[in-house]
Amino acid sequence: MNNISKTIGWADWSWNPITGCLNNCFYCYAKAMFNRFNKSFKPQFHPERLDEPMRFKKPSRIFVGSVTDMFADWMPEENVHKTLEIVKQCPQHTFLFLTKSPNNYHHFKFPDNCWCGATYTGEKPNNYPIYRKVQNLFWSFEPIIEPLDDYWFNGWDKWIIIGAMTGKFAKHYPVAKETIEKIIEATRHYNKPLFMKSNLKPYWNGELIQEYPG
Ligand code: SF4
């Protein structure tokens, strides 16, 4: 596992029993990193990494699958089941998932120590009819690519994470101050925690709000 408390910020560790992704997001930092090190970005399961969280006794927030989309349509469900088996055996930790296909969450049974996140970066809202039934739902708007309309500002469950695009496309996708203000206003209105990633600093003069649920 890798310590991500200073980079990603909203979790302590990343755990990657699965790497690689077929979603092909143009802004993918993981693919760029794999390319840089001449590593394949084809989805790959790493059974030898499965026991890593079991070796950590201190309760931690663990982001599962930071360089893949574990719940994409193309992901073999068997890989996810094997990962969730380990999650069940580590009740001391909180496991955080993120996907661009949150409707697929309903194929799995999650232990209570899981938070299920959905990433929105510009798909149509009606792609997400089922996600609201997922336990401990949280939203990630990272990178913020377009202004967010009112659809997104009610009904979420647990938490909102926002961040800016990084890497070579960042200059083409600045985040409007008004978008950040709107998100802050909505989270204050609904009394929900907000985590603003440090990559928003170039777009925000105020203090970054970095709250966690509970
Ligand atoms: S879903 Fe994540 S890992 Fe997959 S291509 Fe998009 S940004 Fe990269």
What does this 3D model show about the protein?
It is a single chain. The protein has helices spanning 29-36, 77-88, 177-189; strands spanning 2-3, 13-15, 18-19, 44-45, 61-64, 94-99, 114-119, 137-141, 159-162, 194-196. The protein is of the alpha/beta class and 214 residues long. It folds into 2 domains: 2-135, no CATH class; 137-143 and 160-214, no CATH class. The strands form 2 sheets. It has an 8-stranded mixed β-sheet, with no helix packed on it. The longest helix is centred in the C-terminal third of the chain and has 13 residues, at 177-189. It is globular and about 45 Å long. The model has no long low-confidence stretch (mean pLDDT 89). The protein binds iron/sulfur cluster (SF4). Residues 21, 23-25, 28, 30-31, 67-69, 100 line the site of iron/sulfur cluster (SF4).
Features:
214 residues; 15% helix; single chain; two-stranded antiparallel ribbon; binds iron/sulfur cluster
Series of H and E elements: EEEHEEHEEEEHE
Poorly predicted parts: none
Number of strands: 10
Spatial strand arrangement across the major sheet: 1-2-5-6-7-8-9-10
Name the helicity range. 10-25%
Alpha-beta content class: alpha/beta
Major pleated sheet: 8 strands, mixed
Strand residues, percent? 15-25%
Taking all residues together, what is the mean pLDDT? 89
Bound molecules: iron/sulfur cluster
Total helical elements: 3
The rounded distance between the terminal residues' Cα atoms is: 24 Å
